[in-house]
Write a structure and sequence with these properties.
The structure is a homodimer of 121-residue chains. With 121 residues, chain A is α+β, with helices and mostly antiparallel strands. Chain A has 3 helices and 6 strands. The longest helix of chain A has 14 residues. The termini of chain A are far apart. Chains A and B meet through strand 3, strand 4, strand 5 and strand 6 of A and strand 3, strand 4, strand 5 and strand 6 of B.
């Protein structure tokens, strides 16, 4: 598959709220994930599809997703970017907020081997 | 300056239509520019601030910019991304179109040393 086709698969799944299925289907087992900011008590960089899915579960446990726009994929070579805008309610205090970020994905052998998340911290 | 501050300078200039000033002020002399697609008769990758400015002049000569949204910067480490949406009229045939792209910038010693443009080709 082309980089764009992999990207389109990810975007289509995420547009339908199937972010976890996207990770399960498209992430390489040893994917490297790099956050713009280190989550509390953890490094900004982590490794492994299982770790990425676990982090996603924790994020979903902390935030209710009211809606999301998923814009992309925008490809260049073996990489593509997607612009996410999440409409969220933090479950702990019912705070409503938006999280907008650009995700940069690197593809190798039809799998995503690296993801870098760009956002204001 | 932080990566975010460099990114904010670029965004502020571009929001005011001062894309060329942004290049002159913020680009390193030997910046590497990587397009998603190779322009006619040229490689996708080019080198040098002067080359980048020359390409920008050619782009502006071919397209009238009716408006642009400039969204960012979204930083991560020594890199930041900006989402551009240009409202353009191609001068040759008066065709009106949008060009949306994600730009990924790499900063070193307070200058942008690399730019990668992501868009559908």
């Amino acid at each position: 598959m082309t980089t764009k086709e992999i990207g389109q698969k990810l975007v289509d799944l995420c547009k339908n709220g199937k972010n976890r299925e996207a990770m399960e289907q498209l992430y390489a087992p040893d994917i490297v994930s790099v956050e713009a900011a280190a989550p509390a008590g953890r490094p900004a960089e982590s490794k492994g599809r299982d770790t990425a899915i676990e982090r996603n579960k924790q994020w979903a446990a902390a935030n209710e997703v009211n809606g999301a726009t998923v814009d992309g994929p925008y490809p260049n070579g073996d990489r593509f970017t997607v612009v996410f805008d999440f409409d969220l309610t933090r479950r702990s205090d019912k705070q409503h907020y938006h999280q907008k970020e650009v995700a940069l994905y690197t593809v190798k052998n039809d799998k995503i081997v690296r993801e870098d998340f760009f956002y204001s911290t």
